Amino acid sequence: MDEDYSLQILREFRYHLGISPNEWLAVVSLISEYLYYFLEILAVNLLYAGVIKLGGKKSAVLLPTFLWGFAHVLNVIVVPYTQALLLGIYMATFALLTYSVVWRTKSLKVPIFVWLFSMIL
Question: Whole-angstrom Cα distance, residue 43 to residue 40?
């Protein structure tokens, strides 16, 4: 195992410490970031729930896959093209797998726990 590895949440906290004038502001900044992540997954859950009612189960899995992936490709504005493309592919794959599990389990709790867990690791 790589000894330089640290949890993503700790790496992000170090980043916030580096851009914040004090530790409390870094904590508040990190909390706001994770609040954003929580709202992001809730929005994708709402997309899934809406599409399942309007377009059926297959569409409910595919639309979040394409839209969430495409939304992350838009990071090309701030990161190199290859990195933005890989991020889009990662998020599309994540959405496809996650919402396929939701389709089978019928539980929208799955994406919330999986997404936040992946953001911590």
Answer: 5
pLDDT tens digits for 66-76? 999 999 999 99
Contact status, residue 102 vs residue 108, Cβ threshold 8 Å: yes
pTM exceeding the 0.90 threshold for the entire prediction = no
Please tell me the distance from the alpha carbon of residue 106 to that of residue 8, in angstroms, as a whole number.
29
69/62 Cα distance (integer angstroms): 11
Q: Which of 77, 80, 8, 70 is nearest to 37 (CA)?
A: 8
Coil, strand or helix at 106: coil
Q: How far is CA 36 from the centre of its chain?
A: 10
In the 8-state DSSP scheme, what is residue 80? -
Vertex 93 angle, CA 92 and 98, to 5°: 100
pLDDT reading at 2 higher than 70:
no
| Integer Cα distance of 15 and 7 in angstroms | 13
* Three-class SS state of 93: helix
